[in-house]
Amino acid sequence: MSEISVIVCKPTQWIKVRAVLIIAMFAVFGYLFYKDGHIGYREKNEQYAYYNLFNEVAVKKANTFESEEKWKEFVATKKIDFPNEENCPLPKDFERDQLWPEILASHYEAIKGSNKKINQAWIDYTGARGWGVEVADHPEDQGSLNTQFYMATCSAALALVMAFIFLRTLTRTMEVTESAYIAPGRKVVPFISMRRIDTRKWYSKGVATIEYEVNGVTKKVKVDGMVYGQFKKKDGEPAEKLYAFIMEHFKGEVIEFESDDENENLEESNSDDHEGENSELAQNS
Fold it and tell me: Where are the transmembrane segments (predicted)?
């Protein structure tokens, strides 16, 4: 018959909130990476292609025409020469077989001889389409899109891993019975098998490490008060009580920080020893 647990520490609200935030963060990252690879970069490439048409290709071409009439005739029959799909992927439903936008025909004077980065024809066109006038300085190629999909996959995988760890943590507890500490995962560590407890991180991080011996083999297990139980007084400080219970039943070595008073006493003792040695040397000389 198994012993009844004296103290049981369940997963804390702190770890639950933290886990949910981390999972949500990776999930959001995954969504944003996927969106950029599937839609975002393609839409930016479309804007870049039109920007290049309005502010570079059209400007150079307009300078070869002497009259607006000739220019309008040219624009009415000229098809856009879009970059290839590998170098500049465009939206999935994008129609590549398009004539130059009609707005270019009516902006002959604004385009011809333009030495500006952005001409008026482009400003009017982007306003009609709801785009910003500024675009990226280069298109994103298929490799960039693939990178976004790779990052989306990694983020989704991390979200799933964190979700698994979180759900596993929710099913675990940290307990003590009259004779043993039961670590998360149901590993039973009898008090009589414990050899050393490292408490140096307990008061700063709520973590202590127990070294115990099984069949001559030394193993380690942790007491994590931040994940299980925590230290809230309104809840009765379950983690602190569990830790105190272990220490009451522990008979081995405790590793802890030396206090300032102990360090000062040690320094004074060393100083007195050195003074005594110096005095003896002086007398002998």
Answer: 15-34, 149-167
d(CA 125, CA 102): 10
Report whether 174 contacts 183 (CB < 8 A): yes
Kindly report, residue by residue over 262-279, the tens digit of the pLDDT.
545 545 545 455 444 444
Tell me the angle at which helices 120-129 and 41-52 cross, rounded to the nearest 10 degrees. Answer: 150
261 contacts: CB under 8 Å, gap ≥ 6: none
Query: How far is the C-alpha of 197 from the C-alpha of 181, rounded, in Å?
Result: 13
d(CA 53, CA 47) in angstroms, rounded, equals: 10
User: How far is Cα 240 from Cα 247, in angstroms, rounded to an integer?
Assistant: 11
- Answer whether 254's CB lies under 8 Å from 202's CB: no
For residue 204, the enclosing domain spans 174-262
Number of domains observed in the structure of the chain: 2
**Predicted TM-score (pTM) of this structure:** 0.74
